[in-house]
Amino acid sequence: MNHLKRLQNALERFAPANTVSGLTKQFEDIAQIVFNGRYVVNGEYEIYPIDIEFYFHDEENKSIIEPQMYHVGDVPYFPVGAICPNRSGVDMTFEREGKYRASFLIRGYTYKSLVNNNEKTFTNKASQKLKEGEIDKFKPQYLWEDLFGNASIFEKGLSIVWMDNEDFNKVRIMSSARINVKKIKGEATDRMWRFTNLDADQQ
Asked: Which residues contact 163 (CB under 8 A, 6 or more apart)?
């Protein structure tokens, strides 16, 4: 059994910077940890995030706001590590009550079976840059189905557990603008809070 808590510790101890550039560095560090772990579903298969986007909203001082974030305002705070399905995919949250909302959205992942060697490993990932007429390869409903749709509610029910990899290997990461997120008013550029694991195909 894996008892490492790299991601849990990073999210629980998160102390946000007060600038977009500072947050960008913090989010890239968290992305490195995310890309060195996976979700284990019912002990039967693994979901490896390989493309994630971060969202952050300062509830206390409104110094950094996220106008398009789903989970803000007069709604309860999620506990650290909550997984929240929405129309864009699935978020993993790390919020601090009365202080801030924060999460990362999974935009791409690799599926690997643990019990069936003949079952095909596959990747579901958003296009790097959508062009006119191009079909986005990422389908949020696939991730909903893979995380939540493959278990009976009887007997063992559904189990989704985060597991850090035993070995931590730094990967090459590309930072880019988030998909379908408008530039924030008053900011000169897009927030480069989308992080893609460029070594995912070799892992």
From this structure: 2, 4, 37, 38, 39, 40, 46
Q: Please tell me whether residue 100 adopts helix, strand or coil conformation.
A: strand
3 state DSSP class of 109:
strand
Structure tokens at 66: 């996220």
Tell me the pLDDT of the chain (203 aa) as tens digits. Answer: 456 899 999 999 999 999 999 999 999 999 999 999 999 999 999 999 999 999 999 999 999 999 888 888 888 999 999 999 888 889 999 999 999 999 999 998 898 999 887 777 777 776 555 455 555 566 777 888 888 877 778 888 889 999 999 999 999 999 999 988 889 988 999 999 999 999 987 65
Cα(153)–Cα(156) distance, rounded to whole angstroms? 7
3-state secondary structure of 122: strand
3-state secondary structure 149-188: CCCCCCCCCCCEEEEECCCCCCCCEEEECCCCCCCCCCCC
Best CA proximity match to 200, nearest among 125, 94, 127, 141: 125
Judge contact between 108 and 142, C-beta under 8 A.
Answer: no
Predicted TM-score (pTM) of this structure: 0.89
- DSSP per residue, 22-59: HHHHHHHHHHHHHTTEEEEETTTEEEEEEEEEEEEEET
